[in-house]
Give the backbone structure.
Amino acid sequence: MVNRLKNISSRAIIIGTALILIAAFIAGGLFAFFSESSARKSGDLRSYSLQSQDFVWNGIADKEGIVITTDNDPQMLLETPMEFTSLKFYMETSIYPGEIALYYTEPGDAGFSVQKRLWIVPADQPNWYILETPMKTVTALRVDPTMYAGNILEFGEFIFNEEKAFSDYFAVSYGDFFNLIVYTGIISSVLKFLQEMLKKEID
Amino acid sequence: MLLNCIISFISVVALSFGLHLLFNLKSALTPLVSLALLINIVSLAGMFDLLKPGVFMAYGFALVILAAGIAKNRSRLKEKLNSFLSPGVILFLLACVAMLAFLAVRQPLMTEWDEFSFWGISKHLVNIHHQLYTFYKSSMIGNSTPPTLAVLSYFFQWGTEFTEWISFFGYDVMFFACYSAFTAAFDRKKWNSAFVVFLLGFLSPYIFEVYTKIIHLEPVYITTYADVPLGVVTAGALAVYFFSDDGDSRDVLPLLPVLMFLTLIKDMGFALSCIVAFVAFFDMLVGRKEFSFLKIKGFFGKCFAAAAMLIVAAGSFLGWSAHMARVMQRNPFELGGETNMSQVQMLITGVKELLIGPQSDKFVYVKERMTDAFFTSKVSMLGSGAMIFAIVSVLFVLAFIFGNKNGRKRSAMMYITTIIGFIGYYVFHLFLYVYIFKDNAYGLVSYNRYIYPYYIMWLMAAVFALCLAASEGKKFFAKGTLFGFTAVIFLIFSVYCSYDNLFIECNDRSFATRLDIKKRVAYIEDTIGEDDVIFLHCGGDNGERWFIYTHEFAANMIVEERAVDTEGLSEAEKIQKYQQTFYERFRQAGVTHLMIDKPSEAFAHYFGDLFKNCDIWDIGANCMGYYKINYENDWYSFELVKGGNIDG
């Protein structure tokens, strides 16, 4: 066994590590698909859509039909316990919105914190924003739609836990490629180091 | 566009291989040396107004060296190709290809303020005119800055329209060439150590660019600023010297083009080149017993080698200065600013004031602030300058402990000389703040950005000492330290940076202002003539949009808006004063057109009655207007050429 470990080539270490990481990525996708599917079947995970008025607003005001932010930390609060995995919503802004974030609390949490903050990013369609996360039980959500006061906002629907196609669970981003390269390099470098120790190639 | 970029990249790789074949230069060092050689050729040609021919000279040079190398090694070409493909070169090639693919697909844009006042627009101008920016007038400020980075960008896109992501690619080739040099202590058997060092190099700009948890894109690797290049290329120059371990001229000769390249990045490059020469000279004294330079052996050989380094650095600096004096008819040695001293005068005055006195109030204040900033100002993910020094010290001590006899001497000497270099660098910045900067010296404006190039170099120098120990000394411990240090840095990096902060996940939101202005430019550009001199008004702007427009319309002169003193005047007199002052300025600057990005109440108030065939507000809110300025009877009026909704 030890001899076999000693004789694994560098190429095999690198390719093996990359394949294991790819397999882990696929396994993660499969796990998300099956856990969400079973949660949907049992009724724990539901897709539904809300309007902006369904949230409690802080720092946002409706002035004669115009929705405008009144401070630099506008918030939209939703205190509905649920299984949460994604949010997609439509929003037009009069000025650049800056960072858009979602805060959440889980059972037992005292309040919102930066430790439980997720970034919402623009989706492929104009003015649509999206956030996807591994499924979690949340007790409350807070959307911070912009960083600026005086921003006129026009909202469309807020779609929670939209159903995804099977292939969506395996969508690859640039970040995933970056991860694959960097983690393959790091892990295989460490494995090679351990092999060198085993072979006593280094003093 | 892509073809041009690929041909230039191939010339870098071809010259790298040629250098390895012909001079047996360590392969991991060749990408940096060859890039420096090629860019230096084009820069030199550019100073004689032969920029485009310079690119062909550079291509020709690469081809000749490659051909000569192949001719010399005809019988063992396969063997040489095998030795050329060291881990550093393979990582360099892979990183460049991956980055090229990413940039070509994603096509990021410039986003940082000074890219539109100098670093970006200078590259745009060079592409438009096929000349260095010293040869013509433009809206750009700071056209005395040395040309390396503008030429680097030009080299990869001389035959096409200016494309921002290709400029980024040029920079990234430079970075990856430096990271390849960092790995030169390790051959193919030790690929894992090479990867770890390459990764450290890759992370090094982030360590100093991101020093607090951020929530926006930090455009490392997609910016045209010069500060990170300054630090990384200085570290690259040190690597070229330290890892060329033949004990002869080959230790120093490959360094010379890199020093020229470094000197011509930015004014501060000269100081850093001198520091590299200083560190290398003392390393030669203690660590290179059998050293010879151009067949001159012993102490004198080392002195000649050091002199060669200094001559190249000073020669490049003086050469650029002479070029400025010749082309721009300006005294290149005047630094401008508050005292308008020459560099030498500043150094003499500064040293006198520092060591003998008396010290002015400003000197004392800035000195105390800089001393304080070293300990308290957070300049990196790892903490303050003092913390960086502590980490560097620990790494050098470990390199000393784990090194062999010669390695210990070299590590100790490198540690001492880099400390002296840092003191010199820091004191030099004290003088700059005191004598050049005006009131903003009191706030140590851009302190982090000015100082961290040295920290990048210093941190990597300590890593190089560890690399020497890992390849020649107690390999297990040195290598373990190298791996452990990288793991800690990667962990801290992961805590500070999410993918939203990295170039890899940049999206249109990061470029919102640029995209908005690009839409406006697309709407208006067909009406703009080559010789139009434009007065641009951006209502409600803090200057950012104005600078972006100067970049977009780099081919035209854009005239800036300046304040008018109207104190004590009645409203009618104010309007009169504004119109009269602007009339005089327009005539003086030869302004032919007015462009309005967004109208403002103030502009409408003071100039509204000059709009003849269209009221200023008639073009609408989210619109753009371009007006011809008619000069008649010693007065002027604005006639709409094109205006309306940019979305059509």
About this structure: Chain B is about 60% helix and 5% strand.
